[in-house]
Design a protein that fits this description.
Helices cover about 75% and strands about 0% of the residues. The protein is mainly alpha-helical. The protein has a single domain, classed as Helix Hairpins.
């Protein structure tokens, strides 16, 4: 199973990320989305993320397996987790670390490819969407620890704030910036700018690499 996940890793990861970020638009029932759809999305993302790795270093393999298990367990018991401030923060940190882990691995695999392909393009898009998810959990962690770090948020619990910060993450990394949600504190502003810069650098670097490889291939 792991070999098949690795073969189609970028395609499956892109589907999982697309569902996580955008299927809320088609599910107006907030309670159903929170209790059923969101956990399903997170579990699917955890499973598809597992296929990204194909490492031989034992310590990385152990760390990956532990983070993978937590990424599956957390959505299943999230209603219990949110009753504890410590467990909630720990969950956010686990997702941030795990997805950073995957993001770095995606970059490594893309840069190691000698030529561009559909798989590399899928991987590049997946990396970009994954960066949005990492930003989303980072903003959520900031707002959880320091309430009112962002203006324009409607406070109806963590799931509601999660959805609003998902939108804010997209507009920030894509530099659209509508301004309906905005960082208010030094920490939230600096983290927002950090992800904005990383997002722009990612786009410029990856697009440049893909175009140069296609150009080089066409000249052969």
């Amino acid at each position: 199973m792991n070999s098949k996940l690795h073969t189609y890793r970028f395609e499956l990861l892109l589907i999982a990320l697309t569902l996580l970020l955008f299927d809320k638009a088609f599910i107006p029932n907030h309670q159903f989305f929170t209790k059923v759809v969101w956990p399903f999305n997170m579990i699917i993302l955890g499973i598809t993320s597992f296929g990204i790795f194909n490492e031989r270093v034992e310590i990385i393999k152990i760390a990956k397996n532990i983070l993978f298990l937590f990424s599956i367990i957390i959505p299943l018991i999230f209603e219990f987790i949110v009753q504890s401030s410590m467990l909630t923060q720990l969950s956010f940190w686990i997702y941030i670390i795990y997805y950073c882990f995957i993001f770095i691995e995606i970059l490594r695999q893309i840069f190691e490819k000698s030529e561009s392909s559909i798989s590399v393009i899928f991987g590049s898009v997946s990396g970009y969407l994954l960066l949005i998810v990492i930003a989303q959990f980072s903003f959520l962690l900031i707002e959880f620890n320091y309430p009112n770090s962002f203006s324009g948020l409607q406070k109806f619990g963590i799931p509601s704030i999660y959805n609003q910060l998902s939108y804010f993450s997209m507009t920030s990394i894509t530099t659209v910036g509508y301004g309906d949600i905005a960082p208010l504190t030094d920490t939230s502003r600096l983290i927002t700018m950090f992800f904005t810069i990383i997002g722009q650098f990612y786009l410029v670097a990856l697009v440049g690499i893909i175009i140069s490889r296609f150009t080089f291939k066409s000249q052969e």
